[in-house]
Design goal:
two-stranded antiparallel sheet, about 15% strand
Length: about 325
């Protein structure tokens, strides 16, 4: 950061609200140079964060963010709209945000952001010129007021409990079988089973998705951008890009299970390939019902394999529930 003193300070380029702060007019003025893009970047970051947290969506084309540094005499139209229709999001004393959302699409918005009660930035989110005819932006999460699929929620809660029981059984096996008590075969199989169980645990609440090539491609692009730009991934990112991430976790589980089956057949003579591999060949595209069936099939194979190293386990390998014929027909003809 560069500082200017006295006559070095220009009479232009002063950010609104950050003018002369001298308590003693006899003191030589000092100014700090701040890159203009810094104000824009922090404003856009706050705006994007509010959309994601409050609305569950990303700002993406055809919508765009416009940044404004407005002097006091130009804020009247913004102030009127924000006073009448604005909601307040406050993290005081540092930041206070006012947002007014357009009734027409529920997305376009005006923002006023106050920093430390000292200065303000403004932003708008609206359709770009090219996007006026394209309709609302796509997003991978349901709208905030959209009711969730209760049937799927019930399935996800039940299956999360089932895979938790599987994880508990694996934990018990690990705890009571330290390395000296295991030979190479069960250690190799155990590693694959733990990896598969974790992937299925992660995939349960990502299964409510209609996967097709377009949605998968969009999720791949957004996921890669998030990794590159933020260097971090959370479950919220997995959820937002679930058209691809659910496949990542399911395929990881199935690859591990397929490796474990091949190993068990070769080294322990189990002959599981013919019995279990058909459960790992489905790819549940084009509907949550088929994705649920894919998940249940993999979990069934996992519990069957666990019996190879823990024959006395009380875990029941439950056969997967076939999709309803009418539902399957509907998926295939969409």
């Amino acid at each position: 950061t560069e500082a200017l003193q006295g006559g070095q300070i220009p009479d232009h380029g002063i950010f609104p609200g950050l003018g002369n702060r001298r308590a003693n007019v006899n003191e030589e003025p000092v100014a700090v140079l701040v890159p203009a893009e810094s104000f824009q970047r922090i404003t856009e970051k706050i705006v994007r964060g509010i959309y994601y947290i409050e609305d569950g969506i990303f700002i993406e084309p055809p919508y765009e963010i416009e940044f404004y540094a407005l002097p006091e005499n130009d804020i009247a139209p913004w102030k009127d709209a924000l006073d009448r229709f604005g909601s307040v999001y406050a993290r005081e004393p540092g930041i206070m945000v006012r947002r007014a959302v357009a009734h027409e699409d529920g997305i376009s918005s005006l923002f006023e952001i106050t920093f430390w009660k000292q200065f303000k930035t403004y932003a708008s989110v609206s359709l770009s010129g090219e996007g006026q005819q394209e309709g609302p932006m796509s997003n991978d999460r349901p709208a905030k007021d959209e009711k969730p699929d209760e049937e799927h929620l019930a399935w996800a809660i039940d299956q999360r409990a089932e895979v938790q029981h599987t994880l508990r059984a694996l934990y018990g096996f690990v705890r009571h079988h330290p390395p000296p008590s295991l030979d190479l075969d069960p250690k190799y199989l155990l590693d694959h089973l733990i990896g598969a169980a974790f992937s299925l645990w992660r995939a349960v609440f990502l299964a409510d998705t209609f996967r097709d090539d377009i949605r998968i491609h969009q999720s791949q692009e957004a996921f890669l951008l998030k990794v590159i730009t933020d260097n971090a991934i959370t479950f919220a990112d997995d959820k937002a890009n679930r058209h691809w991430t659910v496949e990542y976790y399911l395929e990881n589980a199935k690859f591990r299970l397929a490796s474990a089956i091949a190993y068990a057949d070769h080294h322990k003579g189990t002959r599981l390939t013919e019995r279990l591999m058909p459960f790992l060949r489905l790819r549940g595209m084009r509907g949550a019902e088929l994705t649920r069936y894919e998940w249940e099939s993999a979990h069934y194979a996992l519990r069957k394999l666990f019996k190879v190293i823990a024959p006395d386990t009380d875990l029941e390998a439950k056969s997967p529930t076939l999709p309803k014929p009418e539902g399957l027909d509907a998926f295939l003809h969409r």
